[in-house]
Amino acid sequence: MATPSALPPGVLSLHVLPADHHDKDWDAIVVPKGVKERLLSQALLTLKHGRKLSQLAGLPHGLIVLAGPPGTGKTTLARGLAQVAALALAREGATTLVEINPHAFPSDMLGESQRNIMRLLQDTVPEIAARRPHTVVLIDEVESFAVRRTSASFETNPVDVHRATDAVMLGVDTIARSLPAVLFVTTTNFIDAIDEAFLSRADLVMHFALPDADTIAQILRHSLAELAVQWPQLRPLHDASAEIAELAALCTGWNGRQVRKLVLAALAQRLEVARDPALLTFADLREAARKRGGVEWSGDAAPPYHDHGHDHKPRRIRS
Fold it and tell me: pTM (2 decimals)?
């Protein structure tokens, strides 16, 4: 991984894959059956056959958009996707993972955002892509990178925002033609804020919903299994399917991140458990769940629990 001082402007990190420290990302996210296979298939199609596909009339753009509520694992899954794709292509050479910081580009100077984005997509990304056979570019919170122009008022938004979005379109089109084996993986919490022209270029738009009860149970089981590696006495908790199902029902409406945080909150419910996590019980987990994963109140004037996580309606995954 390159040091921050050595990175080009707008680049958060550079990784050469496959790498051992990226192995856990893919397995850490629990999603419905077939989602990971669909993502990997799309990634390999671009990285392995992009040059041949670029000869087709319907030009692929090597662009994947992962959309959904915060905490559903989009960014972690995107990093994991780069790793498993790199493993699948390892015999053909290494893969570069480039993480972009979209917040590095807005500027008060008219036209500066546009110039910065063009520099990134026309100079920086091609220079990085030339180093290795395969390149994955991860753009988190892409809604700040490709702002929806139809809803952006020229009176309330600087012209530079519109020009910057135009630059994104031109940059993606240029890379699709000249570097068809480069894969863009983008994430967003607010897909309605993304420009329609950007979304129309996507080869795959995948929507992630808040986890259902079965998925929550899988996440809890996975978290407890990880905990049991450190404290083997906790293995019976992982194997208690009925109790896990009951606990999952208490977590309805939570995102995946909140479910994973539940285990940490449970470890801190009692001082003796904090001192010795092997003493963790389902009573601790249920108590933490009732307190909404550690968001607690004190004092008579405050409500006993803080209810959150119900603002998002579950949506089916589609491609």
Answer: 0.85
